[in-house]
Amino acid sequence: MRRASLALTLWLAAGAASANPPTERDLSAGWRFRLAQGTQAGAHTDLKDWLPAHVPGAVQTDLLALKRIEDPFWRDNEASLQWIGLSDWDYRLDFDVDAATLARDHVDLVFEGLDTFAEVSLNGKKLLSADNMFRRWRLPVKDTLHKGSNTLQVHLQSPIGKLLPWLMKQPYSLPGEFDSAFGDEPKGKQTSNYVRKANYQYGWDWGPRYVTLGIWQPVRLESWDTMRLADFHVAQKHVDADTAQLEGQFDLRADKGGPVMLAVDWTAPDGTHGHEERSVALAKGENHVALPVTIAHPQRWWPLGYGEPNLYKFHAEVSADGQAVARVDRDTGLRSVELRREKDQWGRSFAFVINGVPVFAKGADLIPYDSFPSRVTPERQETLLRSAHDANMNMLRMWGGGTYLEDAFYDAADRLGIMIWQDFMYGGAITPYDDAFRESARIEAEEQVTRLRNHPSIVIWAGNNEVQTGWDDWPDRQDFRKFVNADEVKRIDDGMRELFGKTLRKVVSDLSPSTPYWASSPSTDFDGPANVETDGDYHYWKVWSGSEPISHYLDMTPRFQSEYGLQSFPVMATIKAFAKPEDMQPESKVMRAHQKFANGDGNQRLLLYIRQEYGEPKDFPSFVYLSQVMQAEGIELAAEHLRSKRPQNMGTLYWQLNDVWPGASWASVDYFNRWKALQYHAKRFYAPVDVVPQRRDGVTNVFAVSDRTADFDATLRMRVYDMSGKMLRESSQPVHAAALASTNVLKLGDAALLKGADPKRTVVSLDLIEQGATVAHHLLYFGAARDLMLPKPELTWSVSDSGHGLVVTVSAKRLARAVWVDTQDLDVRLSDNAFDLLPGESRQLDVQGTTDLETLRRTVSAMSLVDALKEGKQ
Known about the structure:
Layout: H1 6-11, E1 23-26, E2 32-35, E3 51-52, H2 59-65, E4 89-97, H3 99-102, E5 106-111, E6 117-122, E7 125-130, E8 137-140, E9 148-157, H4 159-168, E10 202-204, E11 207-209, E12 219-224, E13 227-239, E14 243-254, E15 258-267, E16 273-282, E17 285-296, E18 312-320, E19 323-332, E20 337-340, E21 343-344, E22 347-348, E23 351-354, E24 357-359, E25 361-366, H5 378-390, E26 395-398, H6 407-416, E27 419-423, H7 435-452, E28 458-462, H8 467-473, H9 475-483, H10 486-511, E29 517-518, E30 538-539, E31 561-563, H11 572-575, H12 589-593, H13 602-613, H14 620-644, E32 651-654, H15 677-685, E33 689-696, E34 699-706, E35 712-722, E36 727-737, E37 741-749, H16 750-754, E38 762-770, E39 773-781, E40 795-801, E41 806-812, E42 816-822, E43 828-830, E44 835-837, E45 842-849, H17 853-859, E46 861-863, H18 865-868
Parallel strand pairs: 25-26, 25-32, 26-27, 27-28, 28-29, 30-31
Antiparallel strand pairs: 1-12, 2-3, 2-4, 4-9, 5-8, 5-12, 6-7, 6-9, 10-11, 13-14, 14-17, 15-16, 15-18, 18-19, 20-23, 21-22, 23-24, 33-34, 34-37, 35-36, 35-38, 38-39, 40-41, 41-45, 42-44, 42-46, 43-45
Helix pairs in contact: 5-6, 7-10, 13-14, 14-15
């Protein structure tokens, strides 16, 4: 949650107009750390001396930088590094303070984030006992500082070491998520429920267990006199095509009352501008004052595919006695957001309506970028968002078991037109019901909503991930209810409803009333059971977790599917970054260590689905490739089914976009931002226009799916091929594709499609053609790949320089299923990949990244499905 400097952006006065401008001093450099005194050092006695540290950071990253530990992601190092999170640590900074600083009326020490149980002392005086990773801590220290050298110390307690002795004395343990695989907590005794810390760091079914400690956000001194501008917010009271009725809201702290002048200047994307000002009287203490701003015919912010993500620039200024005492700049987009829930023939709708237009949400769920948050740079955040943008995603769901990301992430989402579904950080564990926990949660929520509410990309706040559905339906929760007496069960249930149904809802309603709030994902917002097909959002896991066939995706049409997924391995270049050659088989110790589903047994689940759909992999690289083919084609089936059911369904967010480390997971973009096959498929199945053939029980329905806001006319061309190369038949028909809709344009039985051709050797090509250009393309097969008589395609490929960049050309003599063009460990991306080629077809792929012609020629290769299967097994 790193953010821009408040002192400099909110306080900086204009030149010499203010005699005593506020100042900020960064205190992130010069820290040292050590294993805390009294902690059992074991083999780590060398860590009891002070060592250089990085702030922001974590103990694990500091030890890694000093080469005191090996790479936490290499092979099975995870097990040997658990001691770090079980130990206590000290951080210390010695810094000088001058007389000018001490002469200011106020000097505040600001920690943007402490991870997590932290005792802060300055010059031997205890200032704070922090207990929430997600809060900012502002401490007045003018009377504690002295001229010259000062010592700031932070003592960090292991959250497990602190909480586990207490938990073991309790009559019960609240149900959590994943038990530790390393024995540091007994089975069923999870401390993570009881602390406001990122849940995923305790281990998840896609990531390792690294319980971090550290000063994970910047630290600074703020010095100021008389008045402090704590926040400026552009509240959007009403926005439509004709007018934007706004309010510039100033949060001011004043040492004394008196008049000030508020001023707001705005500049539109096209350069037009305006100015508003008014005088207000401040009272001593906290002041919340506002300045109305009206903009005619606003250039509104639109999500990707629906218009431009326009951003306005706002400049706010506070003046007293003719002098500017505070100023701030804000960029924001003007837009209206509605979560539309209307009764209809399918139940009750769940649709995001932006500026009055119902938007079909296309995207994925976002998990943390890294096990160690401080390693994530703004550039890395934007790179992943651009991967989402390039795959035609218009929404990402920020999953509730991680961290609130820093401003740079949301800035990039604003610019790219990507809507953000923002969970509060509750990952599924049952929460305590005590007042202290709820109060800490309330303050955390107020700080985060205040920080993020100017971002037009945030279109919903959700209370948590899977807390309600887990409490209602999961077997361990049902067993817990039987074990604990009914009165206590009611107190726990009431506590969750109070927190997620009232406390967090009120925070959003008070601070960002134009943004919808949703109690849990999935849920019906406490209006009945959670995770139902006819109301609210839905998480579907019978495929994969329940081992049901992939075809069962076609059996479910919820109102909004916010989670579903299939696993795969990353590409071999990424696997080589954490494994040795001898580790390259699914059941090796290292490969199981990087497969977190079912404690490593997930690789057998992958093989189950690979064998069901394709056959037997001939070796480990083929297993890796087939896992990606299975994942990509399975999620494509589900996503296109959901799109074809618009408006019954109005959103598909698959699990998950990214990885927290290199390993097997549900991600479509791996830890190193390498695209898996699924990401390339998503670019096609999330395209603004798609042609979707769905074959069930020998009957195929073809849908023209359009996110365009206007109808259009096109031609549906159907070509039937023998897989060896002969075109058997061609036909065309006109299509009128309705705006913002799925139009059923064709229905045919197998007999009408095949006309006597062998279904095992036949493929149908469907193209939607508009004004001579193909706007959507899809192939239809008559059965699972393992049941087809796929030919050897005789793939060829070449590399050339087009004059505008390098190009790879791939050709197939006969049908090529699931072509994958591999560039090994070159840091390049192809414009397309993971596609089928018809007999005689070629495809040109632009190469994005830095390499040269000869290197690429030596490196590039291509394969198809038949190359990965044991003979006779496809």
